[in-house]
Amino acid sequence: MSMKTPTKVSMEKIVSLSQRRGFIFPNSEIYGGLSACWDYGPLGVELKQNVKQAWWQDAVQKRDDVVGLDTAILMHSQVWAASGHLEGFSDPLVECKSCNLRWRVDELEGDSCSSCGGELTDPRLFNLMFKTSMGPVEDEASTVYLRPETAQGIFVNFQNIVNTTRKRLPFGVAQIGKAFRNEITTGNFIFRSREFEQMEMEYFVKPGTDKEWFDYWLKERLNWYLNLGIKKENLRLRRHAKEKLAHYARACSDIDYLFPMGWSELEGIANRGDFDLAQHAKFSGQSLTYFDEEVKEHFIPYIIEPSAGVDRSVLAFLCDAYDEEAAKDEIRVVLRLHPALAPIKVAILPLSRREPLVKVARELYADLRQRWMASYDDAQSIGRRYRRQDEIGTPFCVTVDFESLEDKQVTIRERDSMKQIRVPTSELKNIVQAKLEGEDLFVLPQNGKT
Ligand code: GAP
Asked: Is 81 helix (H, G, I), strand (E, B) or coil?
């Protein structure tokens, strides 16, 4: 396998790498685990953080028409009445009368249990929202829900945003946060879990301009994945048929990724029309219109919503980056993560554990980690250490050797090409920075591959 061919990696390999190297662990593992809940380990939390940061930079920081928001997970119960979630956020559920396994009706291939072939109960609607209660008395009035999407926090703050930011249409509000769904069927690792994170933007536009903004966001969002290194052939757009649309949507397209289990939704882009603001205006009794100074008119803006899953993005980036290639007498496993996403940007590898080399290497490590996530590894052979860093996607390894003490130079090795160059230690930070920003500096005489 090589960089050029897409790696059809199995989910087993991704799960095994994730657990072995500390990306993702089963939740509450010492108690046997909690179904469809996952914990991000030391490397996973960095990768996830980097995914969110890359999204935030593109969605908020680099634009002047989008602002950020961070709303509470618990919301007034009326929010979910207005949004339609109390009524309609349900899946039809059937149970096998023999083995008691539960299924979502749309997942079944025939009309018997897909596991044992047993007879199934009649379908009943099962609401996917997690319920809890607020305050010391548990009664109907105290019932609150863990939000099943972050979007509603944005809709109910529409007027606050308009009043405080003086943003004019079109403008967007972005939020990253946890969402919870009591999914009937889970599985495929972090693809469908009961607690997950979303990166959602609600982009408010003038009615009549919604179609062009819908197309605009489709392109923008597809490019976001491509720019972060996802292979083009592993992404596709899938438009929902009119009769398959959610109750709030006028149009919807999914960005699908070719996950190990097949093409599946990575992100949904919906034209929500005026559904949400109109519903919240009706249920709250508050006016949620926008005043257009130009035409001196009040109206309810339409909303275009790109809604992405953080965890699904993490999974897609892991699957897409995973590669195995023949190197010397072994298979090199390498995560070809985009440098912006790599959990560790640079590793310091001293060629000996003896002084004064260790002191120099340690000082370098202390200096580099002021700017980036860096790691220090002096265990086992240099070849093994390179492989360990390749496997977690570290773009650069810096080796410090006894010559470094004399010539004040170190060797940088690039993960993907395995090329090496020797550079002045004083220039190391600038060079790593330039490389992380995509410059090709490996034009100097090379020492060969390792
Ligand atoms: N506000 C619109 C909305 O929530 P959605 O298609 O239900 O739309 C958006 O969810 C994205 O959230 C999905 O494309 C997916 O990436 C992520 N997502 C949804 N349910 C998920 C789950 N159970 N586990 C992990 N990610 C999930």
From this structure: helix
For residue 322, give the 3-state DSSP assignment: strand
CA of 343 to the centre of ligand 1 (A): 24
What pTM does this model have?
0.93
**Residue nearest atom 15 in ligand 1 by C-alpha distance:** 309
Contact (CB, 8 A) for 201 and 303? no
For 448: left if phi > 0, alpha if psi spans -120 to 50, otherwise beta; the answer is left
Residue 27: Cβ-neighbour burial (10 angstroms; 0-12, 13-18, 19+) = middle
> What distance in angstroms lies between residue 387's CA and the mean position of ligand 1's atoms?
35
Residue nearest to atom 9 of ligand 1 (CA): 307
Cβ 44 vs Cβ 22: under 8 Å: yes
User: Mean pLDDT by 10-residue block, N- to C-terminus, for the chain (450 residues)?
Assistant: 57 97 97 96 98 98 98 97 93 90 86 90 92 87 94 98 95 98 91 98 97 98 97 97 89 97 97 98 97 95 98 98 90 96 98 94 96 96 96 97 95 95 94 85 48
